[in-house]
Amino acid sequence: MADQTLFEKYGGFSAVSRVVLDFYDRLLDSDEIGPFFDDTEMSKLVDHQTKFIASLLGGPSSYSDDHLKQLHTHLDIKNEHLDEMKAVLAKTLLDHGFAEDDTETVMGELEARRGIIVG
Questions:
Q1: What's the chain's Rg over C-alpha atoms?
Q2: Which positions carry the signal peptide feature in this UniProt record (predicted)?
Q3: pLDDT by residue (tens digit) across 51-85?
Q4: Whether 111 contacts 86, CB under 8 Å
């Protein structure tokens, strides 16, 4: 039997979409992170983030480093912003039934992209 990706293990796009919707509800409540989305079309962002999180889980969507940089370069994202975002995402994943080791795997994938996301 082939190895199952985390994307497959946790139910594919429908499950990732539920996680991302909850994740953004939590981020919008953050005094530090919430203002980043004041002028953002949330449906478009949720779609983008669903594909990005799916790719972190080994799903079919993926973003090149250049594409990620292009999406984040106009934002003034600092290390503390990414740290808070990671903490909120980790809590969201755990609350949606992700195992701790799988959550750590996702956090590691996100951490590997820190230099691309943080400006």
A1: 14
A2: none
A3: 999 999 999 876 788 888 888 887 888 999 999 99
A4: yes
Measured CA to CA, the distance from residue 6 to residue 37 in angstroms comes to 28
Give the side-chain half-sphere CA count within 13 A for 18: 12
Which residue's entry shows tokens 């992700």?
A: 98
pLDDT in tens, 10-54: 999 999 999 999 999 999 888 888 888 888 888 888 988 899 999
83: tokens are 């740290």
pTM: 0.88
Six-digit token string for 108: 């590691």
CA distance 7 to 53: 9
